[in-house]
Amino acid sequence: MSVEVKIPAVGESITSGVVSVWHKKSGEFVNEGEPLFTLETDKVSTDIVAEKAGVLETKVPEGKEVKIGEVVATIDDSKRKPEEKKEEKPNKKEPEEKKKQPEPEKKAAPVARALSPSVRRIVEEEKLKPDTIRGTGIGGRLTKADVLEAARGRETVGEAVSFPGTAAPSPAAVQPSPDGRFTRKKMSPLRRKIAQQLVMAQHTAAILTTFNECDMSAVQELRSKAQEEFTKKNGVKLGLMSFFIKACVEALKAVPVVNGRIDGDDFIQNNFYDIGVAVGTERGLVVPVVRDADRKSFADLERAIADFAARAREGKLKIEDLQGGTFTITNGGVYGSLFATPILNPPQSGILGMHKIMPRPMAMDGKVEVRPMMYLALSYDHRAIDGKEAVTFLIKVKECIEDPKKLPLDF
Asked: What is the pTM for the complete model shown?
């Protein structure tokens, strides 16, 4: 009997996706629970596994956009593995079995089985040779970072280079013009979604940005003193983001309207603090949400941020990881940005932009001193938040960063 393989519902707001790569080809036998293909949506990519064992017959090609519920393949569960059929006639083809004995030198099958679905997808798209890449994972296993580095190292002048926040196109998706003056490539679902969200934010909200700057001396000194003990105790480093999350929570408590959102003719005031932290990946920018940030310690925040960053790079974030945030923080400073205006993450009403720490001469008690300074930018929906409230929020963040004792320092 044939079992239909349908595109599952992977999120309440997702209606379609792209079959980016088939991990099994048509006519191959698949085991129950084995990954069939990678479904790339406008938020995350996920591997769809076989619900039954049998012979696969694909119905759509790689790269095709499909709707939720659409049948993309069938599995004939009445057919058994080829190995099981051979066991019925063990003596019929002895010469063939002898011919197969020298082949273990190639070890092609074990290599394929050792690759995770996300690694296999990159290897197939970039046409890499796994046996030529040094693995840094456990037991020499190839990681996603290994194959991405191999793909980057193969690039030459004139080829597309992948930066954080941009999607790396497969060679087949790039179409050069006849005269070679430009190339055309299809945007990934994630990049298309990012574009739609940014345009929607500009069209549906009255976005205004207010700026300030903060002296990072106190935070840097505190991190330097507490880093060794904090790392030894918690297994993670004490970063900057946890300070800003704590500072934003204090500012949201002081100016609650920034923690709300407009819904039609109503204003919804959130009484919880789920803070989104923007993470740049090879596929684009994603914003996983740290739940109940006000209840988490510095160590809890650092672990959550590290976990999100690792899973974002590996494409293992879940839909629920990206939903329900009340406020967002984005750090362009990690890429060297000195000054920028962040765009709202709908339906939220506020987003804080962090930037690069730069030593600058500052007037301190009538004297000029060089201090590590960071520009801060708060973009907000002026329909819900007045300028006074936005400035008050930003000053509260500045005060908490410049005097960390105002934060609950639960190291």
From this structure: 0.64
| Residues that are catalytic | 382, 386
**pLDDT number for residue 198:** 82
80-98 per-position pLDDT tens digit = 776 554 444 555 555 554 4
Between 196 and 125, the higher pLDDT residue:
196
Q: What tens digit of pLDDT does each residue of 19-42 get?
A: 888 998 899 999 988 889 988 776
Asked if residue 328 lies in contact with residue 352, where contact means CB atoms within 8 angstroms, the answer is yes
